[in-house]
Amino acid sequence: MFEKKEIAKKSVNPDRWYTDVILKSELADYSPVRGCMIIRPYGYEIWENIQNYLDKKFKELGVKNAYFPTFIPMSFLQREKEHVEGFSPQLAVVTHGGGEKLSEPLAVRPTSETIMYDTYARWIQSWRDLPLLLNLWNNVVRWEKRTYLFLRTAEFLWQEGHTAHATFDDADTFARKILEIYTVFDEDVLATPVLVGKKSENEKFPGAAITYSLEALMPDGKAIQMGTSHHLGDNFAKAFKIKYLDKNGREQFVWQTSWAETTRVIGAIIMAHGDDQGLILPPNIAPIQAVFVPIKLNEKVLNYCQKISQELVKSGIRVHIDSREEKSVGWKFHEWELKGIPIRIEIGEKEMENDELTLVRRDTGEKVKSQKSKVKSDTERLLKEIQDNLFERMKKFRDENTHTVSSYEEFKKIMATQKGYIYAFWCEDPVCEAKIKEETKATTRILPLDAKEEKGECVYCKKPATHRWYFAQAY
RNA sequence: CGGGGUGUAGCGCAGUUGGCUAGCGCGCAUCGUUCGGGACGAUGAGGCCGGCGGUUCAAGUCCGCCCACCCCGACCA
Fold first, then answer.
1. pLDDT digits 0-9 by tens, A294-304
2. Does domain A402-473 fall into CATH 3.40.50.10800?
3. Which residues is A456 bridged to in the sheet?
4. What does A343-384 look like in DSSP terms, one character per residue?
5. DSSP strand pairing (A71-73 vs A464-465)
6. Residues of chain A falling short of pLDDT 70
7. Which CATH fold topology does A14-273 show?
């Protein structure tokens, strides 16, 4: 592999690298509107792969897709107190339509709880109407002060699931099933290991009873929230009067969940796996898994490429043949490296003489000789190896950068230097959490789902604490 | 919203104490030669110098105001 002149070195300037690599690999572009981004076809294909995977999993749980309006009457957002407090600073509001001032301003949805639950109140009458399991694939707008491609933009794409259940436990079980889907998706598809657990009171979704979250540690030592699944309790049910008659004819409020994963995860995989040469896309999400670069562009070589690629396509591998005449071979190598294609297949006259091909791994740069007769199994094996390697190296990094600490001195020192996760006792008093954030930038990320009760003292105030929490600086 | 920076061709930039027809590299187009790690030559297209207003014989250049974007903080998926 050779140096890329047009992108900053990840090792030297990771922020600059991140922006460069997104623009140069044509995942996305800046837009004329401040804080909003254009997702280009190459980036959108990744999103489509994410959609295809998750949509199938949601449907297996009985979830149906629907669509609700972009515009939400302001009064709806005000019905749940914590919810409006959480979102009002970030709202984009439409005040005029058709040249006239609207009688009630309309918020551009920051999330759809309120407009959906107003409708749920009409749709849900009987225990027989439960559970109600809907998902939306849409866009939302949050007027962020400071934006960053994919990771934090004023408008972003996501899926938002919204369910209503008869009991607290049913809702909790469902929220955790979604959490399981997200965990498998993040780890097996995006090759990004996650910590899974509950959020603190402060970090909870506005209006939720419990927020479950998945957190991934990035190479710069900061954590990204990869997805959330909220148990909303009966907070919204009471605010929106979502009631049903149970089997005994008694009126009950429903119990609800909402859950989301966004285009932000694309930012996470860029940052997690890429290197100085550009993107490295996990094979399971890459729009192109193997790219053919014919060394000589004559008919014989192209036919050979065609024949082999057809065989790979038959077994479900996403391939592309780069037959452009105007670009040199070296130029193509650089471009496909920048774009993070997992495997490059080189075919020239040398290979053709012996019915061979050369497979080149993007993650290690290793060249692997293969035979025409074994290309399918070799490609499949390499794709799996690359997928596993990406996951393993992120996991190793995560483990090496998880620090179990008992003193606040140690805590501060780590946050001031290499960052990463800090695993420490916390008394669960929001005051300590706020102080720690102020002094170190670290916030609580999660309490692990399987956390055991222990005897300890809060890393900050020394008061008795029963659980260790994960802390990190958040994106 | 606070701090810093930048606006000149699609992109990256140069343009001196104001002075002639606004330049360079990359990219783009056409033709030819190349092609196992970012090829080369020839020709060519492409500009309201972010906007408005001043100063001046003369403004990309000086002054004022505005706008936009980027980077760093507080807020957030």
1. 998 888 899 99
2. no
3. A465
4. EEEEE-HHHHHTTEEEEEETTT--EEEEEGGGHHHHHHHHHH
5. unpaired
6. 1-2
7. BirA Bifunctional Protein; domain 2 (3.30.930)
**Considering only CA atoms, which of A72, A76, A78, A112 is closest in space to residue A92?**
A72
Residue A152 beta carbon within 7 A of nucleic strand B: yes
pLDDT (0 to 100) of residue A143 = 87
Structural domain spans, chain A: 14-273, 290-380, 402-473
pLDDT of A353-406, one tens digit each? 899 999 999 999 999 999 999 999 999 999 999 999 999 999 999 999 999 999
Tell me what percent of chain A is helix, strand and coil, each rounded to the nearest 5: 35, 30, 35
Please tell me whether the interface predicted TM-score (ipTM) of this complex is above 0.90: no
| Cβ of A433 near strand B (distance < 7 A) | no
Q: Which residues pair with A262 in a beta bridge?
A: A158
Per residue in A12-41, pLDDT tens?
Answer: 888 888 988 998 899 988 887 778 888 999
Domain A290-380 has CATH 3.40.605.10: no
For the segment 352-411 of chain A, residues whose CB is within 7 A of strand B: 358, 360, 365
Report if pTM > 0.90. yes
Cβ of A114 near strand B (distance < 7 A) = no
Q: Which of A92, A207, A198, A201 is nearest to A153 (CA)?
A: A92
Q: Which nucleotides of B are covered by protein (CB under 7 A)?
A: 1, 29, 34-39, 68-77
The H or E element containing residue A108 is strand A100-108
Cβ of A24 < 7 Å from strand B? no
A32 φ, ψ to 5°? -65, -15
Radius of gyration of chain A (CA): 25
Chain A, 265-324: which CBs lie within 7 Å of strand B?
Answer: 295-297
